[in-house]
């Protein structure tokens, strides 16, 4: 198997949470199931969230596995680490429950992996004033300039999500950067649908 798509899920309320996440997690998972590239599994990790288990009963697909772990701290790396441990794919790739993949996302990543151990990519966001989508340039060297899901890495790399806090994505990528065999993937289809604090932007 090529990809394990790891999706951490917490449907409880917190300050920067997206709205309607019980519906959005179904949208997110369906965006993976609709990929043109078919060699993947989906691992939904419920972060102490029984509601996730109940909501995911709406999807009956053998490619999707949902399991519950004890609740950790908010922004803990525990759910993603648990997903990696359950994964069978050669590569780990991530998706936040309030975002989605365009149908060609995994195909685009796969076609450019080459011999890299890990890769990163920009995402696609919506400009409310211009009412149009645009490619958002990410920067893996700066805090808050990329998200938890702008990366794809080999499952067997010796890295863990071990920083608690909102910048846990940055600290994980800095671990990845110790491995110099990486590159940037172009023209992917990762759609960010919720940006906390940006004009209530939540699609």
Written account of the structure:
22% of the residues lie in helices and 25% in strands. The strands form 3 sheets. Strands 3-2-1-4-9-6-10 form a 7-stranded mixed sheet, sandwiched between helices. Strands 5-11 form a two-stranded antiparallel ribbon. It has helices at residues 21-33, 50-55, 78-86, 105-112, 168-176; strands at 3-9, 40-47, 64-69, 91-94, 100-101, 118-121, 123-127, 132-136, 151-154, 182-185, 190-191. The model has no long low-confidence stretch (mean pLDDT 92). By secondary structure, it is an alpha/beta fold. The chain has a single domain, classed as Spore Coat Polysaccharide Biosynthesis Protein SpsA, Chain A (Alpha-Beta Complex), CATH 3.90.550. Strand 2 (40-47), helix 2 and strand 3 form a beta-alpha-beta unit. The protein contains 5 helices and 11 strands, in the order βαβαβαββαββββαββ.
């Amino acid at each position: 198997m090529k990809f394990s798509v790891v999706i951490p899920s917490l449907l409880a309320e917190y300050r920067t949470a997206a709205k309607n996440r019980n519906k959005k997690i179904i949208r997110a998972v369906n965006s993976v199931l609709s990929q043109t590239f078919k060699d993947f599994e989906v691992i939904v990790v419920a972060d102490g969230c029984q509601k996730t288990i109940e909501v995911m009963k709406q999807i009956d697909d053998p490619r999707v596995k949902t399991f519950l772990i004890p609740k950790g701290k908010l922004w803990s790396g525990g759910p993603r680490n648990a997903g990696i441990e359950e994964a069978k794919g050669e590569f780990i790739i991530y998706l936040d429950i309030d975002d989605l993949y365009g149908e060609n996302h995994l195909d685009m990543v796969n076609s450019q992996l080459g011999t890299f151990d890990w890769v990163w990519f920009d995402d696609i966001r919506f400009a409310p004033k211009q009412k149009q989508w645009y490619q958002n340039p990410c920067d893996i060297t700066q805090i808050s300039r990329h998200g938890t899901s702008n990366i794809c890495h080999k499952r067997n790399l010796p890295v863990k999500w071990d920083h608690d806090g909102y910048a846990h994505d940055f600290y994980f990528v800095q671990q990845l950067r110790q491995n110099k065999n990486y590159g940037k993937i172009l023209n992917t289809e990762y759609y960010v649908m919720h940006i906390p604090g940006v004009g209530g932007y939540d699609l």
